[in-house]
């Protein structure tokens, strides 16, 4: 699981382009049979359109699996991710699909159950896991459960209480004769219904045994159909302002899923401060999204903007690993940098933007656990403000002819969309504003440019895959047998840490990251401790990391070095 790596991988984002050499560069990725690794989030309607209607679909993903993972660990032309998270695919009246009308089907805009089955099969043939996004806090107002309950309540005489025996679905939601905070009026009746997000999303009554039986069947249906797990939406809203009850419900989900299909993976969204969301690890859930490191004000972006907070990045990793371990002995961290609800990272930096985007992606991928990458971040896409702007079309290549609704040109080749030269280009959400969402270029352009954000991110994902300790180890500070404390304090822009195998501490990596733009030198104590050797280097410029015989490590600006 931990191949010896003895040479140097050099990736340059300057004029000299990319160069690789030595055993380390040629080693295949390590294929893991568990959730550790790198997961790619796909906003399905904006990723790849296979039929020319302007909407991304499951067949579009299937036909582009070689981009994500070609199934061959020895190649690095693919992105190298080993799991996919699909945003909701169930039928829904909205473009984002977080309000289902049927939990047992695929939205017709995305394809069919047969298309889903084909995608699952192709993913599994390549060793790629598939996670579905499941919103169980609420449904759509158009879900038959709600429409039947609403129709029944409309027949009741004033003052008469509903009878679940007459209409079981009145127990599926939370109804009240009194208007309360977060409740909406049910037209034509004296009733109100709980809908904390908006009137189109009525909250489910998660205390109802009937609802839990429905959810048990839904989870089982998709697990039987090949899903490898679920992303759980809006966990903190299961019971508004009541984390204890939300944790109890989450425990029920975790037990249900893990009993039904051992080895299944659950990752939850708890958009809270770190101390608050860490507690949810007590539920038995596998992972929680690591919001403390994500977004424009997260640990990663702060370190990159300042260029001198490398040590804080390391300290925060150690602190959170200790925090999570105190909640669960089996936690798997879920680091991420951006997602479909956040502004894209290109807008975080006022200068040296492309290099800083690259560095930030590397800092995300150097965390432990199952790292998540939002589609298009590997291309340095832009998008902020309205949610639709954050979910712009994946830019496969520029479209020569683009219809007003994203339909394919009449002369387009079969299986393409967005114009004769658009490849699988989608139209994007209808209410997305007009702006340049691809400031670093299309995928086609970036593949040809060895300086590109894409080529850097692709190499970083593969570097993570070649070193399983990055994902599976624990973070510790280097001792004074590795580096003098004064030397470490002298270079606050350097993030220097050891990633250690918990079961066998002799298996370890020393990782150094220069968060600043200028080259830095740092002295390692080769004669007092382990004789480190430079295994790999990933840089954003023309210079490469070097380690001389005296133990001086030279790191160009924004460079990453892995030592053994």
Please tell me about this protein's structure:
The chain has 564 residues and is of the alpha/beta class. It is built from 15 helices and 20 strands. It has helices at residues 22-26, 58-62, 65-68, 113-125, 144-155, 209-224, 243-260, 274-278, 299-306, 310-327, 353-365, 443-447, 453-466, 468-472, 485-490, and strands spanning 9-11, 18-20, 37-42, 83-86, 129-134, 175-176, 183-185, 192-194, 229-232, 265-268, 287-288, 370-374, 474-476, 494-500, 508-514, 520-523, 534-538, 546-547, 552-555, 560-563. It has a 7-stranded mixed beta sheet. Strands 11-10-9-5-4-3-12 form a 7-stranded parallel beta sheet. It has a 3-stranded antiparallel beta sheet with strand order 6-8-7, with no helix packed on it. β4 (83-86), α4 and β5 form a beta-alpha-beta unit.
Q: What are the SSEs and their pairings?
A:
Elements: E1 9-11, E2 18-20, H1 22-26, E3 37-42, H2 58-62, H3 65-68, E4 83-86, H4 113-125, E5 129-134, H5 144-155, E6 175-176, E7 183-185, E8 192-194, H6 209-224, E9 229-232, H7 243-260, E10 265-268, H8 274-278, E11 287-288, H9 299-306, H10 310-327, H11 353-365, E12 370-374, H12 443-447, H13 453-466, H14 468-472, E13 474-476, H15 485-490, E14 494-500, E15 508-514, E16 520-523, E17 534-538, E18 546-547, E19 552-555, E20 560-563
Helix pairs in contact: 6-7, 9-10, 9-11, 11-13
């Amino acid at each position: 699981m931990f191949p010896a790596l003895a040479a140097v991988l050099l990736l340059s984002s300057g004029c000299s382009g990319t160069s690789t050499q030595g055993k380390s560069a040629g080693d295949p990725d390590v294929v893991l049979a568990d959730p550790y690794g790198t997961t790619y989030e796909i906003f399905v309607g904006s990723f790849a359109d296979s039929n020319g209607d302007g909407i991304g679909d499951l067949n579009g993903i299937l036909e582009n699996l070689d981009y994500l993972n070609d199934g061959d660990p020895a190649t690095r032309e693919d992105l190298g991710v080993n799991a996919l998270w699909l945003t909701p695919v169930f039928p829904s009246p909205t473009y984002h699909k977080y309000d289902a009308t049927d939990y047992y089907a695929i939205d017709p805009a995305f394809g069919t159950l047969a298309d889903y089955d084909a995608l699952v099969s192709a993913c599994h043939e390549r060793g790629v896991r598939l996670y579905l996004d499941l919103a169980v806090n609420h449904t759509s107002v158009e879900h038959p459960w709600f429409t039947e309950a609403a129709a029944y309540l409309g027949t009741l005489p004033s003052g008469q209480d509903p009878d679940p025996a007459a209409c079981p679905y009145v127990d599926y939601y939370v109804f009240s004769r009194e208007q309360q905070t977060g409740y909406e009026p049910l037209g034509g009746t004296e009733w109100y219904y709980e809908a904390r997000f908006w009137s189109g999303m009525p909250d489910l009554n998660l205390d109802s045994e009937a609802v839990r039986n429905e959810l048990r069947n839904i989870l089982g249906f998709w697990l039987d159909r090949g899903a490898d797990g679920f992303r759980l939406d809006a966990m903190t809203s299961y019971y508004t302002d009541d984390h204890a009850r939300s944790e109890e419900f989450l425990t029920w989900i975790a037990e249900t899923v893990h009993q039904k299909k051992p080895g299944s993976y659950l990752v939850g969204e708890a958009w809270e401060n770190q101390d608050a969301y860490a507690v949810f690890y007590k539920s038995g859930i596998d992972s929680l999204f690591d919001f403390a490191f994500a977004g424009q004000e997260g640990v990663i972006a702060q370190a990159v903007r300042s260029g001198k907070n490398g040590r804080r990045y390391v300290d925060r990793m150690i602190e959170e690993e200790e925090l999570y371990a105190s909640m669960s002995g089996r936690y798997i961290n879920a680091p991420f940098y951006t997602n479909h609800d956040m502004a894209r990272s290109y807008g975080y930096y006022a200068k040296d933007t492309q290099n800083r985007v690259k560095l930030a992606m590397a800092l995300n991928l150097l965390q432990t656990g199952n790292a998540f990458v939002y589609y298009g971040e590997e291309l340095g896409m832009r998008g902020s403000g309205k949610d639709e702007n954050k979910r712009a079309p994946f830019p496969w290549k520029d479209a020569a002819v683009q219809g007003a609704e994203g339909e394919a040109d009449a002369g387009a080749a079969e299986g393409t969309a967005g114009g004769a030269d658009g490849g699988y280009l989608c139209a994007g959400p209808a209410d997305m504003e007009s702006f340049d969402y691809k400031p670093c270029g299309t995928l086609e352009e970036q593949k040809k440019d060895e300086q590109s954000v894409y080529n850097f991110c692709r190499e970083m994902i593969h570097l993570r895959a070649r070193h399983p300790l990055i994902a599976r180890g624990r973070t510790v500070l280097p001792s004074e047998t590795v580096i003098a404390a004064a030397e470490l304090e002298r270079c606050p822009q350097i993030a220097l840490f050891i990633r250690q195998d918990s079961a066998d501490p002799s298996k370890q990596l020393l990782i150094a990251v220069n968060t600043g733009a200028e080259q830095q030198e740092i002295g390692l104590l080769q004669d007092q401790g382990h004789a480190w050797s430079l295994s790999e280097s990933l840089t954003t410029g023309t210079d490469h990391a070097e380690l001389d015989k005296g133990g001086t490590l030279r790191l160009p600006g924004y460079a990453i070095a892995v030592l053994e």
